[in-house]
Amino acid sequence: MPKIVDHEMRRQEVLAATWRVIDRVGLDEATTRRIAHEAGYSNGVLAHYFADKDDILVSALKLAHEHVRERMVQVTDGVMGLAALRAVIVEALPLDTERLLEARIEFSFLGRALNAPKLRKVHQDELAHFRRRLTSLVRAARAAGEIVTPRPDDDVAAEVLVLIDGLSIQALLAPDRITAAMQLRMLDVLLTRISAVVAEASSALG
Amino acid sequence: MPKIVDHEMRRQEVLAATWRVIDRVGLDEATTRRIAHEAGYSNGVLAHYFADKDDILVSALKLAHEHVRERMVQVTDGVMGLAALRAVIVEALPLDTERLLEARIEFSFLGRALNAPKLRKVHQDELAHFRRRLTSLVRAARAAGEIVTPRPDDDVAAEVLVLIDGLSIQALLAPDRITAAMQLRMLDVLLTRISAVVAEASSALG
Amino acid sequence: MPKIVDHEMRRQEVLAATWRVIDRVGLDEATTRRIAHEAGYSNGVLAHYFADKDDILVSALKLAHEHVRERMVQVTDGVMGLAALRAVIVEALPLDTERLLEARIEFSFLGRALNAPKLRKVHQDELAHFRRRLTSLVRAARAAGEIVTPRPDDDVAAEVLVLIDGLSIQALLAPDRITAAMQLRMLDVLLTRISAVVAEASSALG
Amino acid sequence: MPKIVDHEMRRQEVLAATWRVIDRVGLDEATTRRIAHEAGYSNGVLAHYFADKDDILVSALKLAHEHVRERMVQVTDGVMGLAALRAVIVEALPLDTERLLEARIEFSFLGRALNAPKLRKVHQDELAHFRRRLTSLVRAARAAGEIVTPRPDDDVAAEVLVLIDGLSIQALLAPDRITAAMQLRMLDVLLTRISAVVAEASSALG
DNA sequence: CATGAATGAGTGTTCATTCAT
DNA sequence: TATGAATGAACACTCATTCAT
C-alpha cells in the first residue's frame, strides 16, 4: 500500500504556506516555487493538489474567508440581537495580529482582483454573503427593539461594511494610530447611533 | 531651461499612460513595454526618464496624489470651516468615474505596497499629509464653532479617513450599491454627528 | 512459471494501451501517466514491467511489427509463388482501419527514429527483415516462372517497399484519394509489370 | 538611430538554425533554447520574430516547402512536356545530401502532424499543391503526345507522389541501398510505363 | 534623444522517474 | 506486486533592463 495522504489536509498545508509567503514577501513575489518550499515540498508537488497557480491563490483567498466565517458562527453561538451583530463585526476587524494577517491577505488580493475576473468574483461573492449576514443581524436586532434607526437595514449593513474596510486599510497603513481600542470605539459610535433614538433624530438627513 | 520642461512633460505623458494601462489591464499586467507603447513611444525611451520600473510606478502613484491635492486646494479656495472640510472630503470620494479611476489606481497599488517599502512609504506619507490637512480643517471648523464634538481633532480626522477608504473599496466592489448619493449621505451623517451637540451627547462613549 | 506469463501479459496490456494513446493523442502527448491510466493502472506500475519510457516505446513499436509478421505468416500458409508475394504485400498496406492504425503508429515513430538510435535500429531491423522476406518471395515466384523481369530480386523487393511506404504515407495524409481500391490497383500494376514479359521488355532502361 | 535588422532575414536565420537542430538532434529535442543558441542568439530573441514555438516549427516546415517549390520553378524554366514532369520529380527526390536533409525535416514533422491539426494542414496543403502541379504537368505532357496511358491524370500524379514518398522514406532508412541511381531508375520505370503504348497495353488491369 | 534589438533570469507548468508504504 | 506521493530537471515563454546605433 502506498503512502496515503489526506488530500484536503495537504491542500490546507499548501494554502497555509501561501499565506505565510504572501505575508512575508507579498502577492507579487509569491511564486509557486516559494510556496512549495515554504510548505516543505519541492515545486512539483503543487500539481498534485492544485490545477494551477490561480487555483492556489483563489483557494487561499477563499480559505481566509472561510476562517472568518467560522469564527463568526462560533462567536454568535447563543448570542442574539445587537450583541450578535457586534460580535460578528468584531471578528471582521483587524484587532490582533492574526486578523491583521487576514487583512493583509485580503487587501493583497484586492488590487489584483480589480482586473482579474475570477478573483473579483470571489471578493464580490464574499462581500454579498457578508452583507446578507449583516442585514439579517440588523433585522433581528431591530425586531428585538435594539435598533431604532429609521434607515433601511441594507443601508445600516453598508455602513458597517464601510467601517470594517476603512478600519482595515487604516490599520494596515497606520497600525500605531488605528489601535484595537480606537477600532472598537468607532464601532460603538456606529452601534450607539443606530440604536439610540435621540441620536438618530438629530442626524436624520433630508 | 526648455529641456527640463520637455523632460518633465515627457514624464507626465508616460505617467498618464501608466494610469490608463493600470486602469485597463491592472497593475500586474502593466509592463514597461505596454506603458511605453500606450504613451506612443518605444520601450527604450523609458530609460531616459525613469530609473527603472519601480520609479515609474512610484511616480505614477505620487502623481495621483498630487492631482487630488490640487483639486483639494482649488475647492477650498474661499471656503472655510465645516464647508471646507466637507469640500476636501468630497474630492477624496469616488463620486464620479474620474475619481473612481483614482481609487482603482490607489487600491491597485495598495496591495503591492503592503510588502514594497518604497510604495508603502508613498502611501503612508500621503496618508500622513492628508491626515494633517484634515486635522487642520477640523481644528479650524471647531474654532469657528461649527464642530462641537468633545473627541480630539485627530480622532475625527481618523474617522474621516476610515469613511473615505471604506467607501472607496465598497464603491469599487459594489458600485451599484454604493452610489454617489449614498456616499454623500454617509458623509453627512458623520458631519452632522460631530457638529451637533445633541447627537454627540447621546453617542458619547465610556 | 505462471508469474512470467502474467508478466508478459501485463506488458502486452500496457503496450496495447500505448497504441491507443498514440492513436488518440499522438506520440508527443503519450506520457507515461496517460499510458498507465489507459491501461487501467497507476503510473507507478510501469516501472515493474519496463526499464523506462524508451523501453515502452521501443516495445510498442516492436509489437506492431510482430503483429504484421504474424499476419503475413498466416496469409501465406498454403500459398505460393506470386500469390504469396501479393498476400504479404497486402498485409502491409493500409487497406482498412486496423492497418491504417498500424501505419499511424509506424510513422509516428519514424520521425522520432530519425534521431533516436534505438528506435532507428528497430525500424531498420524490421525493414531488413521485411526486405529479406520479400526477396525470398520474389525468388520463389521467379523459380515458379511467375516472375520474369530481368531486374535483380533485390531491386524488385525495393520497389515493393517503396510502394508500401509511399502508399502508407499518402493514405495517412489523403485517405479520401488513396482508397483501398487504388492501392490494390497500384500494387497490381507493379506485379503485372514484373511478371509480364512484354511489359518488362518495353520498360527496360538504358 | 537604432540597429535596424531585416526581420525577414532574421527569421530565415532562425529557421535555418531550426533545420540544423532538427537535423542534428531531432524534432523532439529541438528546444527553443537550442534553436536560439544554434542561431547565435540568446533564447529571448525568438520572441521578436516568432509568436511561439509552434510558429517557428510551422514556419520551418513551410520554408522547406518553399525551397522545393522554388527549385521546381527554376528547373522547369524553358522545359516542357515529359521533361518538365521529370525535372519536377527529380527536385522532390532525396538524391543528394541537401535534399536528404529536406526529407529528414519533412518526415520529422510528419509523425507529429498526424495528431497536430496545424502541422497536418501544412502537410496536406503542400501535398494538394504538389498534386495539382503534377497533374498539370501530366496533362501538358499528354497534350504534347508524350503520355499515352489511359489512366486519369490524377491517378498518374498519385503514383508519382507514392513513388516520391516511398523513395524518401527508404532513402532515409536505408541510404546505402536506395542510391540516387536507383531512385532515378525507378522514376524512369514509371515514366517509361506511362509514356509507352506497348507497356500500358500489357499492364492494363481489369 | 530615441530606437528597438538583444539579453538572461525568472515564471508557471509538465513529466519521467524514484521510492516508501 | 501495486500504489501514488514526491522529486527536480526541463520546458516554453515573459519581461525589465541594457546598449549599439
Write a concise synopsis of the structure shown:
Helices cover 74% and strands 0% of the residues of chain A.
Give the topology, please:
The structure is a homotetramer of 206-residue chains.
Chain A: H1 7-25, H2 32-38, H3 46-49, H4 53-75, H5 81-92, H6 97-113, H7 117-143, H8 153-173, H9 180-195, H10 197-203
Chain A binds a DNA duplex (21 and 21 nucleotides) through residues 1-5, 10, 31-33, 41-48, 52-53.
Please provide a written account of the structure.
Chain A is mainly α and 206 residues long. The first copy, chain A, has ten helices and no strands. In chain A, helix 1 crosses helix 4 and helix 8 packs antiparallel against helix 9. In chain A, 40% of the residues are buried. Chains A and B meet through helix 6, helix 7, helix 8, helix 9 and helix 10 of A and helix 6, helix 7, helix 8, helix 9 and helix 10 of B. Chain A binds a DNA duplex (21 and 21 nucleotides) through helix 3.
Features:
homotetramer, 206 residues, mainly alpha, DNA-binding
The major sheet of chain A is characterized as: none
Strand content of chain A: under 5%
Poorly predicted runs of chain A: 198-206
Range of helix content of chain A: over 70%
N/C terminus separation of chain A: 73 Å
